[in-house]
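User: structure tokens for this one?
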Amino acid sequence: MNCAIGGQIKDMKEIWIDVRTVEEYESGHIEGAINIPHEEIGGKIESVVKDKSQKIHLYCKGGRRAGIAKDVLEKMRYTNVINEGGYEDIKKRLEKDPN
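Assistant:
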């Protein structure tokens, strides 16, 4: 899965979810990431991720909304959810180490 920012995410079996608004997502996101705004994640996640043990990476602008979404998913018994923090931080990490 190539990132729109030039880096790569290694494992395509892992799901990346951008929990920012649609407008924020459209202004730039990790290629292959699914956009589900954090306030909608509880109602939409089961149509996207059926296996509750699948690794799910969440990100937003700074990590706060991803943290809220992570709490929602954990209450729904998703067991492998990671708050990756903010989009800009992820961009920097991937630009530094694209592998």
